[in-house]
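Comment thread on ticket #2218

A.B. wrote:
> Attaching the input chain for the structure job we discussed in standup.
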Amino acid sequence: MPVGLMAQVEEHRWRLGLGGVLVVGLYLSSRFSYLLFHTLAEVFSIVVAFSVFMITWSSRRFLQNGYLLFVGVGYLALGLLDLLHTLAYQGMAVFPTHAFAANQLWIATRYLESLTLLAGFLFLGAHRQPRPTHLLVVFSSVTALIVASIFLWRIFPVCFVAGQGQTRFKIVSEFVIIAILAVDVWLLLRNRAAFEGRVFNAILGSLLLAIGTELAFTIYISNFGLANMVGHYLKIFSFALIYVALVKTGIEYPYELVFRELARTNEQLTTEVLVRRAAEAEKEAVIGQLRTALEEIRTLRGVIPICSHCRKVRDEAGAWSQLEAYVHEHSHSQFSHGICPDCRGRHFGPLG
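C.D. wrote:
> Ran it. Output below, let me know if you need it in another format.
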């Protein structure tokens, strides 16, 4: 087995092993305290979200893929809202006057996530590159409005009622988010050529797991139930794939991620240069052929010194030669000798 393939197999085994340890560890923590499980699961996604933003922001001058730039900046808002969701979760007692604000923050964050992944396709291409500072202002403003609508103005729709479970708004919203994520998947498949292979596969897997996450959250009744736990597991794996796509790939394979668009442009320019060089070579060949033809087709021009008696011609060196030889030398023409009617009559008389 080639060394490179063995390294990839070993890396996949390491990832599977780490994933297995993570799943078992989180499960054991849930047996001890579901609140601990929820906190650990959310902290993981928060760390990933902030990491995605930091690597995107640090490489914003070189990142030519507008989709990755837009999504990367947007993950700062997602990380902040997930942090508030974790602090507001039932049992944390951080916001005692907002018992189920965590459910509202969850649905608002998932709306923002799905719409961010959707709007990113508007900037897929260097000619539509968004400005990072403008994106930061927009996402910060959206985050502030969401927080204010829940904690300050209290106008965000209720998502969970004690003893009843999820509200109709919450369940319908989950299905709306699923529909948006499905559109994200469709757009990603249509624009597959714009993403490096590992990045494309990771983002696709993350979107599919995000859809599974929302499906799990349409059926839970308790904030501490099995469906809620499954949904958080799927969210962990979804964010892990985002990590692989934009953080790990960005660190280990910066050429493919940060300079992918630049590499594609250079490849196009190289192809164009080769085509132009071929055209130049062809033009030079044609010019050479024309020069050769011009050298072969010499023209007699100017005053030709010719003897009025014998009709010999004096060349540039001063030597006298027959008219036929002079013309042949200067035009490469060949002579065929015959006799005109006047000469035939004058030299041969009636016999001619």
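A.B. wrote:
> Thanks. Noting for the ticket: The chain has a mean pLDDT of 83.
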